[in-house]
Amino acid sequence: MALMDMAATMIFTDCSSSSSSSSTARLLHFTSTKVQKLPNTISRFHRSNSLQFGISNPRFSRTIITHCSSSSISAIELNNEASATVIDGKRVAKDIREEVAVEISRMKDEIGIVPGLAVILVGDRKDSATYVRNKKKACDSVGINSYEVRLAEDSSEEEVLKHISKFNDDPSVHGILVQLPLPSHMNEQNILNAVCIEKDVDGFHPLNIGRLAMRGREPLFVPCTPKGCIELLHRYDIPIKGKRAVVIGRSNIVGMPAALLLQREDATVSIVHSRTKNPEEITRQADIVISAVGQPNMVRGSWVKPGAVIIDVGINPVEDPESPRGYRLVGDICYEEASKVASAITPVPGGVGPMTIAMLLSNTLLSAKRVHNFR
Ligand code: NAP
């Protein structure tokens, strides 16, 4: 087909496991100034052209170019393959763990101090028990001493507070973590507030969050998951300053601190939440998207600005009869679609997930260094 005659491009994609809108395919209209040679992604031409999305058919997975308004387009090649750089959180997390291990060994050799992390687990949620086990393993692997308290589901709030107080006073403990969620009869706020700010390696204490939000103030710790998101951007040399960023989700543990962190890095930040009227349109303006929603494949390819960088925090189990476990994990972003439009994207699993524990280890080391004035 003669490309000169083309005025619109339709990309049909499928995100089979999605529970959201079935209109997965989108009709792209663009008016070009001059594009001599287009790359095999649509990202580069987007920089110099206007682009809008329309609706088309979800059942196909191929590109059909039907019409272009500009006769100056000499070649258009839209890619149906994933073209985004995969941001490998597993590898970055491994690097960070190695760096932490080196520092811990140096600290031990020079001042005889070994960082310690205390974890309090209440109840018998299997997922929480797995997270705690993984944290312990991670501590062992880098040389952090780990202390663990397991309390029954029907324990009292006072019991939890008693253990927190004990760890607050223990000089061999540099970080205290209360595994969430807590049983419903406990007041999460009271419990998190009881962790002394100097050992709040999760960064959830209101004083740490407050400092994160204020200009000219420094939190002692930044929450691990959002810190991991920003670390991924840094390690992949992705510029943040002056960029438009959209954070989807505003939870205290991920969305809100992620937005604050992006703002501290001089991005212009919008937050999308469950009451946002036009999430797709807002998200499509973003150079950087961080999504922490908990809805499988909610963000479709059409939500993504070509060339955007996507950090997917979501971890959502979806049924998969072919998997031995009967389910598999997917993110909030429809990876299959978004990876064809974005310039870089985190996979799920293997993206943000491994970064959270790496950041916890890093925060525990930071705490021990600070208290012993070790540089
Ligand atoms: P959360 O506390 O349930 O918060 C979800 C946020 O998403 C809320 O702010 C909610 O808005 C918003 N939201 C819900 N539905 C929406 C929709 N349809 N459109 C736009 N926004 C919507 O969840 P969370 O603890 O932040 O976790 C989010 C996801 O990240 C989950 O999948 C979780 O498993 C994952 N996670 C991963 C890690 C990791 O280490 N990788 C760590 C933590 C969490 P409202 O505020 O209006 O209700």
Describe the protein.
The chain is α/β, with parallel strands linked by helices. It contains eleven helices and 15 strands. The protein has helices at residues 43-48, 89-111, 126-142, 157-169, 188-194, 206-213, 224-235, 255-264, 279-283, 335-338, 353-371; strands at residues 8-11, 26-31, 50-55, 63-65, 85-86, 116-122, 145-151, 175-178, 244-248, 268-272, 288-291, 309-312, 316-319, 327-330, 344-345. Strands 5-15-12-11-9-10 form a six-stranded parallel sheet. The protein has a four-stranded antiparallel sheet with strand order 3-2-1-4. It has a three-stranded parallel sheet with strand order 7-6-8, with helices on both faces. Helix 3 links the parallel strand 6 (116-122) and strand 7 (145-151). Helix 2 runs parallel beside helix 11 (353-371) and helix 7 (224-235) packs across helix 8. 42% of the residues are buried. Bound molecules: NADP nicotinamide-adenine-dinucleotide phosphate. Residues 225, 248-251, 253-255, 272-276, 279, 292-295, 298, 313-316, 352-353, 356 line the site of NADP nicotinamide-adenine-dinucleotide phosphate.
